[in-house]
Amino acid sequence: MLYWLTALSDGGDFFNLFRYITFRAGGAFLTALVFGFVFGRPLINVLRKRQGKGQPIRDDGPEGHLAKAGTPTMGGLLIVGALVFSTLVWARWDNPFVWLVLFVTLSFGLIGFADDYAKVSKQNTKGVPGKVRLGLGFAIAIIAALWASWSHPAGLQNQLALPVFKDTLVNLGLLYVPFCICVIVGAANAVNLTDGLDGLAIMPVMIAAGALGIIAYAVGRVDFTEYLDVHYVPGTGEILIFSAALFGGGLGFLWYNAPPAAVFMGDTGSLALGGALGAIAVATKHELVLAIVGGLFVVEALSVIIQVLYFKRTGKRVFLMAPIHHHYEKKGWAEPTIVIRFWIISLILAMIGLATLKVR
User: Could you state, in order of their start, the residue ranges of all structural domains in the chain?
Assistant: First the structure.
């Protein structure tokens, strides 16, 4: 919205700053951060009052989690609220990719909100049936995948860009949209599975969003793409503002989610943020890089898949408990130890993902 202040500029004054994506990204970060600090405590108080007993705790989970009973959930409302408000204030409204990532974020957030509401109101851990939640996710992802495909330049439509390999595109044809659907739905559910400890999911999401924001800015500038030998996707630079807002909103939420958490993000936050990461990757043609940048989420999801398949086949378990962060809890690792080490792993993976921009 503030971008339109450039109409008041003569080219050399303060209003000219609003032309620059980097300036507006900084503004988006600060706006979302302040939003989180201002509305965080009031939101938690409302959630605690409305939810009473808070998020239901699984009886078969790690014993230490029973002490968290009574903690309110749906804290993702704070992140999504800060993210959407800040993006609308600082981003250009004529950019299709901005609306694409906002659409995915809000839509998956609504699915998560319905799931959280069902859990809290019924005081059980089942929530919305998995098939219903997955079906809605696929419906949203279909729209987003088609939207992204139509928004890409003609030479990149239905093409899969390979990291590291210079100017290499794989024409997926009719398989491109289903592939993108799997990326978005997979990312949403992988982040959802990771959200099991205080602060565990939000920091890796912020790190991944920061890395993808840098990638979006780079592939949206023709001079950068020529230097880095990556594919130019006009308009994606504006996604940096969304990523910066996510980072700021995430920090504001982490202030209250740091151990011991005063609020959980719930599916409202985890599904929304995971879907957002998938949408950014699809928009920037860096779907495969998301698997590196978000490698922690991939491992968390794989640990569940492996556990389920192996148990059905043999009746035995590979991990003491899945997702894998619970495995380490069962082994006696302290919760803060698991969280911080997983943060470190996320940061390393993000650096590797960013390195793919240069290594060609």
Answer: 96-235+257-355
Closest Cα partner for 288 from 153, 185, 179? 179
What are the tens digits of pLDDT across the range 321-344? 999 999 999 999 999 999 999 999
For 254, half-sphere exposure in the C-beta direction (CA atoms, 13 angstrom radius) is: 19
Burial of 269 (0-12, 13-18, 19+ CB in 10 A): buried
Helix (H) or strand (E) holding 169: strand 169-171
Average pLDDT rounded to a whole number, residues 147-155: 93
Please classify residue 347 by burial: count the beta carbons closer than 10 Å to its beta carbon, then call 0-12 exposed, 13-18 middle and 19+ buried: middle
* Virtual torsion, Cα 237, 242, 243, 248, nearest 10 deg: 140
CA–chain centroid gap for 292, Å, is 14
Show the CA angle centred on residue 321, arms to residues 324 and 253, nearest 5°.
Answer: 50
